[in-house]
Each structure stands twice: as C-alpha cells, then as structure tokens.
Design goal:
With 370 residues, this protein is α+β, with helices and mostly antiparallel strands. The chain folds into two domains: 93 residues; 219 residues, NADH Oxidase, CATH 3.40.109.10. It has 13 helices and 14 strands. The strands form four sheets. Strands 6-11-10-9-12-14-13 form a seven-stranded antiparallel sheet, with helices on both faces. A three-stranded antiparallel sheet has the order 2-3-4. It is globular. The protein starts with a strand and ends with a helix. The structure holds flavin mononucleotide.
Length: 370
Amino acid sequence: MRVRVTRLAVFTSRNGQLVCDVPARHRQFGLRPAAWLLLTHYTRWAEPRDEDAALVKQLLDAGVLIAEGSAEHRQEEEMGPWRSWGTAATYFHLATRTLDGEHFVTAVDDTSRLRQKAEQEPEPDPFKRYGTHSLALPTPMELTPALDRTLRERRTIRRFDDTAPVTLEQLSTALHWTGGVQHRFDIPGFGEAVLKASPSGGSRHPVEIYPVVRNVGGLAPGLYHYAADAHALEALPGAAPDTETLLHWFGDQTFVARAGVLFLYTAMLERSAWKYPTGRTYRAIYADLGHVSQTAYLTGTALGLGVFFTAAMRDEPIEEVFGLDWRTEIPLGINGFGVPHPQEAARLREMAAGGPPGFSYPHDEWDGLG
Ligand SMILES: Cc1cc2nc3c(=O)[nH]c(=O)nc-3n(C[C@H](O)[C@H](O)[C@H](O)COP(=O)(O)O)c2cc1C
C-alpha cells in the first residue's frame, strides 16, 4: 500500500511549531521535527519504509497521509471546480463547512455571552463617520410601481444615456433603501441595534456604501461616503476618477464608466466578527452583499433607472484611494445606476410587452454589433 501527503492539507506555523491543518476534518496537528522530515519523503506516492511504520499509521489516522486507492484518494482525483479554484478556496470552504457534530449555541446563551463580552469590549459602532464636510440629502421619493411590476422589470442594464444625469432625489432614494436606517434602538447591556430594508446576518449590517458620483444633478463629481445614521453624504478627499481610472478599478468594463453613480460596497469586518468570531462569517458577509444589491436593483428599477452589479474590480488601487485596510474593511463590489439609453429603454419596453428577450449589451459592443 503506497501513501502520500494529502493535497487538502495546509501547512503553517504557530508558536514556533510547524502545524498541519486538515480542513476537511477541522483538525490541526503540531508536527514534531521527525514527522515533517518524514512527510518530505511522502510528497509522492511511496511504500512506507519499515522505520516509518508507527508514524505513518498515526499520520494516516490523522488524515495527513492518504492511502493509494482510498476514498480520500478518489476524492482528490475528482475535485471538480475546486481544482481550478485552487488551494485557498478549497481550504476556506472545507475549514468553514459545518460538520455533523457542530454545536450551535442557543439565542439565550449567545446573548448572555455577548453581554459579558460587551463589558470588556464594547460593540463596534454600527455607523462609520468621517466627520468631513457633510451634505444633507433630500427626502426620499415615493416608490409607486407595484412590487410585481418592479420584480418583472428588474434587469441588469449596461447601456446608458451618459449625458442624462441621475437626479439628487433618485440618488437619495436609492441610498435610503439600499443603506438607510429604518429603525434603531438600544438593547440594554448590549448595544445599539439597527434595522434596514435588507436583512443582515445577526443584524450586524457590515456593508458601507461609498457613492462614486459621475453625473448626478446638483452634486459635484467625486468620491463620497454615505453616513447612514444622518442620511447624508460625506465628501472624501481625492479627485473624481476619470473614465480610464474607473475602467481600471472595475475590471475594464466600459459600461461602468457610463453610469451616473456607482455604489462601492465595503464590509466593516469588526461589526460581524464581534458577534461571530468564526471564519464562516466571511460567507455571511457576501450573503449580506447579495441582499443589499437586490434592494438596490429593485429600488433603481422602481425609479426608472438602469442598474448593474459587478464584483469584477482591482481591489488594490480601490483600497489605496478609499484608505481601506484589508484587516478591517474590505471592498466587495459595486452597483451602478444610470439613465438607460433611449434605445435600451425601448428594447426593455418591448421585452416587457412580450418582445424578444435578450441581455443588455454595453454601448461599445452594441455599436460594434450594429
Ligand atoms: C455576483 C454577481 C456578479 C456579477 N458580475 C457581473 C460582471 O462582472 N459584469 C457584468 O456585466 N454583469 C455582472 N453581473 C450581472 C449578471 O451578468 C446578470 O445578473 C445576469 O446576466 C442576468 O441578467 P439579469 O440581471 O438581467 O437577470 C453580476 C451579477 C451578480 C449577481
């Protein structure tokens, strides 16, 4: 029987010791020098040497080594999409996959744990503020179309009339529903609870919105932060990004630079981590983002705007310009809003009335397609 080191293990170091992490089993093993020397011999299939017999058995039991032809071996041969998604994605998935014996705390136990925690470490502020020049936003508009009509008409739009501005009232309405506060109240001994239009895991609402304004009536183009607690915009330092910069930030997708305003979403990690100190929380943050984006889509559609979402972006330059540190706040994706191009608006009307269905193609490609 030949054996080799599992491809699913990850090696790291902790407290001066080499550690082997077997994420599928949620197990970590500190490796003695004899074990790591032994493992270097079994990075390819090999018959166990006589002198290794006892240690090989221990490492097989631990799942650090696997046997040729075993169920674990077959699994590693048939990894499906995980093969191209690579070690990092596979490791994260397995390490945060709950096992059959997972213990879930009750809401009562969890609340008492958090009350104790709050005494040592106060809950992170649910609102971020820059304290820069702040601009009050107008009262949000009424959304009149019926929900079923809005749901039916919601599409991803990539072709805009880039001469037509989004109005300040439309921007205010989109911000109100996408990131605005519906209710806030104190939970004694705990902290402040916030409720918004979109659901959020543990009501942590980690998502912040940074409007990147290109063409909004009555608002200077530039970078802003949405102060959700005040329904106001805070102007951020830095020039309004030009077309080339926007394309560079957002994955070279031409339609992004034709929208009137982009909502850059970030996550304030501590808000979620304070309540949920487990890696699985990273998944919930992206589920939160999906809910926020759908609310943005529906609001924009009800306002007669075209909306898109993309997660294709170059994190590094965005982090630099917005002063984001990946240890505390990470960029997640963007929604863009703009006035649909008249030809696009006509196509959407036709499609809604039973005409030919199709995707919205960006301006440049559309022109290329004639
Ligand atoms: C997570 C996610 C990422 C997306 N990324 C992109 C993108 O990078 N570029 C793009 O043109 N559309 C992107 N979209 C929009 C999808 O292409 C669009 O939703 C899909 O084609 C279906 O069209 P519909 O939204 O009109 O139903 C994304 C949508 C989601 C939910």
